[in-house]
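To whoever is on call:

I kicked off a structure prediction for a single chain this morning and the downstream step that reads the tokens threw a length-mismatch warning. I double-checked the sequence; it's 455 residues and nothing unusual in it as far as I can see. Pasting both halves so you can look.
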Amino acid sequence: MDLWREDADCEPKTPQERLLCDENRRLRRVCQALMERVESAGMGGAPYGAFEHAVLLAEQVRERTDTLHRTLEELGEANRRLEEARQEAEAANLSKTRFLAAVSHDLLQPLNAARLFTSALEDQPLPAASQVQVGHIGRSLHDVEALIGTLVDISRLDAGVLTPDVAVFPVAELLDVLTEEYRQVARARGLELHYVGSSALVTSDLALLARVVRNFLTNAMRYTESGRVLLGCRRRADGLEIQVGDTGPGIPEARREEIFLEFRRGNSASGEDRGLGLGLAIVERITGLLDHPLSLSSVPGRGAMFSVRIPYGASRDMPRTVLAQAPLEGEERLAGARVGVLDNDQAILDGMTAMLSGWGCEVVAAAREAEIAGRLEPGRLDVLMVDYHLDPEDDDGLALAERLEQEYPNLRIMLITANHDATIKQRCRERGYACLFKPVKPLRLRMSLIHLLKN
């Protein structure tokens, strides 16, 4: 039945009905025109079809909206689970870092004592065969120290808990010591170490920068079979560039990015490889942390050169605890120097006493503050070496040193610790204390001691 056909039964009988019938016909024509307009616009073949199409679309929109809401709820739940997993992973990582820090401290204590005893033996007149054995022991201890230091460094870098302690210092304070240390390594490997010093002042974290240059030198010595290793500096417009070059096999272009990845190792020249393949990975992270540009150039078959660029420093910003630039200048001051050692580990006390006595020092060793208090009268001690971690009944070494300095203003202080916290280093610098880290390197200890005795 055509709903829009005019009704044939519509026969008006009154003028009012006639008007209504006319209006009805007019409205029917308007509706008919509108429907034709809609149908011509592609909304279906009939008005009812258009209506059904609209209803179907609305239902599809509703279903898809419901599906979207369910998906969003599932994503929200997945995100909550991921956030919980992330928090658990961060907590586990922090726990691992704390564990490694604690374990490293406990491991470094006996290792430090062993290094001290070994150094004391090296200074003694021993038979040639014994000297060789002592040298082997020293190198093995050095390898253990490097492995533990590498593991702790990579853990602290991964956890993001390593805070740089940036200060101004003469670059010679770092490079002179490293030269003396690695000259012995080079000699043992039949290599020549050529050093070009510099009087420049730089701004960096000395301990972290030392880790970078040590890795450069260690790799150069490890992979160079014959020839020489170069340690030097070049002044650039935007900073001082520390360079370490070698005459080793070089690095092919295809491997220059790979060597900075973790656990990538080459074949050492000696056939021995005690490394973990983490050295250059740590270098890249430390230089990134310090914002020091790192570069590598190499010619396969002729050698490689690694370099790092450090900002210059101003002399007005340099603390008063920097070392003398000449490594062993003033060594005669050690003879007769009165040195106190405060550490709660008896093996450390025995090892430090043996080594310092071998240098000609008069040593007073104690495990508690009360034991050494009577020796701190003016003029009785020249230098006090104090460990940071003492017995719980005592203050930490830094607080103890600050209190003793107030009572004895002329007492020179050297803090020795396995804790690399930047706050500790900063407080030492502000107070003018020397600060060394365990395991103590004998050469650096000797230089620090000479510098304190000269001031």
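Update from on-call: the warning came from a stale cache, not from the record. Cleared it. Sanity check on the structure: The chain has eleven helices and twelve strands.
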